[in-house]
Design goal:
The chain is an all-beta fold. A 6-stranded antiparallel β-barrel has the order 1-4-5-9-7-6. The protein has a two-stranded antiparallel ribbon with strand order 2-3.
Length: 129
Amino acid sequence: MMRDLRRNQRKIYYSLYKEQSADSDYDVLDTVARYSAPVEFRASLSAGKSDAEDSPFGKDVSYDRIISTVNKALPITETSLIWYETKPVLRKDGLADASSADYKVAAAPLDGLDGVRIAIKRIGKGERI
């Protein structure tokens, strides 16, 4: 049974993938991903990656942490971005600045009877999303 004790919950933000669009009016071949405005939620966050004996997402999925929650209504998908260690930065148009994200979702969320587990992978500085 999954527990979601309030004292174990952390403030986390997610942003959903919206579209791929041109970065400028002049170069239509250079596109960037656009993400929705970040949304705050609370959930438990693992301290680090589990060992090889406990790999709920499979052995081929590379992830750093797992978000666990009983909130099965979260719309997070494998294309979502996550902020935990920093606050999200907004662009002038009100959408999320993807380069400010700490993590990306590493695999499709696991939807269980009692809750959801989401594998997340740290985004390296300068890594293009």
